[in-house]
Amino acid sequence: MRKTGVICEYNPFHLGHSYQLRAAREAAGEECALMCVMGGNFVQRGEPAVLDKHARAEMAVRCGADLAVELPLPWAVRSAEGFAAGGVALLEALGADSIAFGCECPETERLEALARALTGPGARELIARELTAGVSYAAARERAARALCGEDAALLRGPNNILAVEYLKAMALRGSKMRPIAVRRFGPGHDGGEAEGMASASTIRELLLAGGDVSRLMPEAAFEVLSRELAAGRGPVSAAGMEMAALYRLRTMTDAEFEALPDSGEGLWRRFMRASRAEPTLEGVLAAAKTKRYALSRLRRMALWAYLGVTREDMAGEPPYIRVLAVGKRGREVLREAKAAAPVPIITKPASARLLTGRAGEIFRLNARAGDLYALLYPDPARRGGGGEWTRSPFILPD
């Protein structure tokens, strides 16, 4: 069976995501199984997902995906480079033949040229040289790309182009044989409001948190899952609910714990530590630590890593297991083939996670602790019990 993969967050699942799944299937062929590697309960921008990962995975298979698996926490809450590397590794482990991604520029050759340049000799040195000028990493990367590729470096101003290039970089570094499928993105960007009959994920999240109606912005099947979760008191989840706990964690951390945070080099950890011990709000901490060089998204992720107890060592290597969240129409067949060849354990029954040893066991336990902290953010206190990671089975789409 041929398999196409998509790396995503689906936070929350909306019409643009439904379009991407349809376009990926059309490009790969109707007979091709469609697999999603999804972020978990905490997402790349450094915040909790508005809905729990199981609900979002169910939305994906109800809207056309054949399988949804989780990108473990240390990769799901990283920069675009780490997020892409983890996702590509899991797709390779599942035996994907191709990878589909949304982007502002659907010209794969131009994106591949950027990826080759940024993984080629001299790229790191160029980026490091630009960083010494005090600019952000994004600006340094674009300047380096301009020196190597000319005007096409401007493509790196599109957030989905950036992720696409990172997927292609990860594939190049692995020598992957997966075929890239670029799907042109329509509608607004991530923070772009509404356009062309679609809304950005941020717009939908803000509407949900304000109690607004999002039914017109989501596929019917996804909205049904959302309605069920809201009625059950399991959403919407807001970052505001974790603020006091996050501030408590930050104020009780030692210097060594700040220094152990990922991406905290070049003295950033000291700046972040001083802000954490002085500012009265989490946004105040981020604003006080931010500079022209350090993007707010990087600092937001640092605060989340501190809150969840993620260290630099947790991010080493590749995801050491595959956790299945939802199984669609062809998902059983995909899993049968993958289990016979995957280089890492595939977890379909939560009880089998207790058999994981070594690094796989450590990362799963970290994921489980994060799941318990996420549950504390549910609107209904009766839903805030712990231990769900060890008991909840994948959603199986009925025949």
TL;DR?
It is built from 17 helices and twelve strands. The chain has 399 residues and is α/β, with parallel strands linked by helices.
Provide structural commentary:
The chain is α/β, with parallel strands linked by helices and about 400 residues long. It has 2 domains: about 1-105 and about 160-235 and about 320-399, HUPs (Rossmann fold, 3-Layer(aba) Sandwich); about 240-315, no CATH class. About 45% of the residues lie in helices and about 10% in strands. The protein is built from 17 helices and 12 strands. Helix 1 (about 15-30) links the parallel strand 1 (about 5-10) and strand 2. The longest helix has 18 residues, at about 360-375.
Helix residue percentage: 40-55%
Radius of gyration: 20 Å
Q: How much beta, percentage-wise?
A: 5-15%
CATH homology group of the largest domain: HUPs
Oligomer: single chain
Unreliable stretches (pLDDT < 50, length at least 5) are: none
**Whole-number total of structural domains:** 2
CATH architecture of the largest domain: 3-Layer(aba) Sandwich
User: Total helix count?
Assistant: 17
Number of strands: 12
What CATH calls the topology of the largest domain is Rossmann fold
Order of helices and strands: EHEEEHEHHEHHHHEEEHHHHHHHEHEHE
Structure classification:
alpha/beta
How does the overall form come out from the CA principal axes?
globular
Give the overall pLDDT as a whole number.
93
The largest pleated sheet is described as: 8 strands, mixed
N- to C-terminal separation?
Answer: 20 Å
Q: CATH class of the largest domain, please? A: Alpha Beta
